[in-house]
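Data card: per-record layout.
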Amino acid sequence: MEILQFTTDLDENVARLKALFAQDKTFIVRRLRAPEGLRCAVFFFDGMIDNQAINQSIVRPLLRAGLKSASAEALAESVLQINECRVETDLHAMLTALLYGDTVVLTEGDSRPIVLNSKGFDVRAGDEPDNERVLRGPREGFTESFMTNLSMLRRRVNDPRLTFTFSRYAAHTHTAVCLCWIKGVTDPALVREMQKRLDALTLDGILDANYIAECIRDDGGSPFPTLGTTERPDVAVARMLEGRVAIVVDGTPVVLTAPCILQECFQANDDYYISVRQAALARVLRVAGFLLSITIPGLYIALLHFHQELLPTRLLLAIAAARTGMPLPPFWEIFLLLIVFEVLKEAGARTPGVMGSTMSIVGGLVLGQSAVSARFLSAPAVIIVAVAAVTALTVPKLQSAGMVLRFLLLAAGAAAGLYGLTLGLALTLGHLCTLRSAGTPYLLNLAPRVETHDEDVYTRAPWRRMRRRRFLARKEGGAS
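The structure for this 480-residue chain is written out next.
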């Protein structure tokens, strides 16, 4: 693309473009000669354009122009009837636009191409995302269409301070990426930092937002998410109103947001569409569920191995009776059941349609009941793993971190009892204290001596009392 050069000879320019795309049968060249003598050529890719726009807004006006010859500016300003039309002097930008569904027009006597917006490829409808469903609230979700996603954000923020910064990355795919923020709300230092990280990308192809997320996130080795993701426009807008930036990537419905803090992992979309009391109870259940999911396997092993005196006598006798004749120690029972649970979860996620959830439920029930009936595993171990599995589903954003912590705390409890379990939790808390996301402490609003707005932290205050929602905006950003 760098060696392509145009001249004032239309035939030579057509030959050069044909040679460039000689192996691509979807590349279409439409030569035009008006009765008065105007000669032009129209270039586009079949399947990427709106045929009606080509015929009515480009071909017909050129044939009816009544001109013997014309410059690129004259055609763009007086003849071509399309909403977005420009004379492009950068041939690299022209080729990028052509490959993305725009139409290029060349005229005899002028070496400068005209780029027209004629995109018309099919896009998926913006249905509600399966993994972010709500009981009440908007049902719209992002799609794979870049401009459609940006229009969803613009429609919700009718403010001229909403800013879009466009760039293209990756040597082969030239994927369009947009950095979105609201001036006066978002800290300018945050915008500069995220733009710097994006400009440092050296990928040869970007097919999904996760390609970018892995390269620009803080502490890539941490199991905790330090970059937010969402497929809902209302969630992306809500985070921008709090001082975050959003990163929209062409070809994927996933939008990245930064900074990401631990607090938002325990929040859900429904919290803002239901009553305050329901939202408060739901958040308490999510926190309790996450703590149970990571600690209960290790706590069970620690109590059985090291601290049996802490268990009620009847409960201890019941567990001992259930474990009579078991071939495996308690640790290996829990460990194997956790592995089986992760395998079933992965198999259910990869199985298409409703068969996935059905297979996970039925498979878990059948395997658990069969293992207990065959005296291969004890019933208390099955109950403990089932509780850990169910409570882990309350916080889907922390499932990866929960899985890692579950196994680590299990090993800590088996090695040193409650002392090991406590040490493991203390190390986890220490790790959280060291995490930052785009310069923001990961425990913002949760840790002491950190500036906080407590109207939407552990519980949500009524909307009439939530006067300051931009709790991430710093003084440098000039947030009002």
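Known properties of this structure: The first strand starts at residue 27 and ends at 33. The radius of gyration is 30 Å.

See the next section for split statistics.
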